[in-house]
Design goal:
single chain; mainly alpha; 4 helices; 69% helix
């Protein structure tokens, strides 16, 4: 499970390691840069995953509360933006991309299953 306090503790630990010289040789620096790039990619994927989960959860709660379908999801992008310390516009972009990536990955997984494999919720024909 991914919880904010664990992520924050790791961020603090990594930040504290930047206060002194690394003590790495050049090959180790290159390896560390590569590992940090991978970490950045994983963080981006985690943000997208959690943004999509937040959207789904909020929409379900709003549907249960009787909010009309056209208004469900209102405010989610703003929550994403605030959490990421970004503008509302960027929050909408991040949430939109997270939803597209999730949908497209499901489609790709469906294609990998063969021409007759169908992914639940995907109405497109392979």
């Amino acid at each position: 499970m991914l919880c904010a306090s664990d992520v924050e503790a790791r961020a603090v630990d990594l930040s504290s390691r930047l206060e002194a010289a690394s003590g790495l040789d050049d090959a180790e620096r290159v390896d560390a840069l590569r590992a940090l790039e991978r970490l950045g990619c994983v963080v981006t994927a985690a943000q997208a995953h959690l943004s999509r989960e937040l959207d789904e959860s909020q929409r379900a709660a709003q549907a249960d509360a009787g909010v009309p379908a056209a208004r469900q999801g209102a405010g989610v992008a703003d929550q994403v933006a605030r959490a990421r310390r970004e503008s509302p516009h960027r929050g909408r972009q991040h949430l939109g991309l997270a939803k597209v990536v999730a949908r497209e990955l499901l489609h790709v997984v469906g294609l990998a299953g063969g021409p007759h494999h169908r992914v639940e919720g995907d109405d497109r024909r392979p």
